[in-house]
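Ops channel
N.P.: pipeline sanity check, posting one input/output pair.
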């Protein structure tokens, strides 16, 4: 009777192994697809932010620490311009910030505008970073998905 049970249990184990392999392959395929979508989304966000900045036709100030005279369209040029703006604001306000200036100071509105522009540029720098992080995460998903599919094929 024991001999009769052994052959009947072997196919079950084999079927379970095939089912598990199919599940792992499906998970791998889903990770590859999700990763590809993340890569496309991140790259699209990078391009959108870059084109949005370029459409403003703003140039990096000549006294910026880097990229002087170049069009602002990358995280590096945007950050360089934020540093130039910071210096301009500090020079105009004798080292004071918007928050520390007297409310009736005639330069307060100009300092506020400079601070807002600087904040907007810093936001674009962060958007570039998030886009790059999404591309990196998507790449990890794709590699992990292909790894799972490779394991399932064995």
């Amino acid at each position: 009777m024991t001999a009769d049970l052994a052959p009947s249990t072997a196919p079950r184990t084999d079927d379970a192994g095939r089912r598990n392999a199919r599940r792992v392959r499906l998970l791998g395929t889903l990770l590859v697809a999700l990763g590809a979508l993340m890569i496309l989304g991140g790259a699209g966000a990078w391009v959108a932010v870059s084109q949005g900045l370029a459409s403003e036709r703003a140039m990096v100030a000549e006294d910026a620490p880097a990229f002087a005279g170049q069009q602002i369209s990358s995280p590096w040029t945007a950050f360089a311009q934020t540093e130039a703006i910071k210096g301009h604001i500090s020079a105009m306000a004798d080292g004071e910030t918007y928050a520390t200036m007297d409310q009736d100071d005639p330069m307060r509105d100009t300092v506020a505008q400079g601070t807002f522009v600087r904040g907007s540029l810093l936001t674009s720098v962060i958007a570039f970073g998030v886009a790059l992080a999404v591309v990196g995460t998507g790449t990890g998903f794709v590699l992990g998905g292909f790894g799972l599919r490779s394991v399932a094929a064995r």
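N.P.: looks fine end to end. The mean pLDDT is 91.
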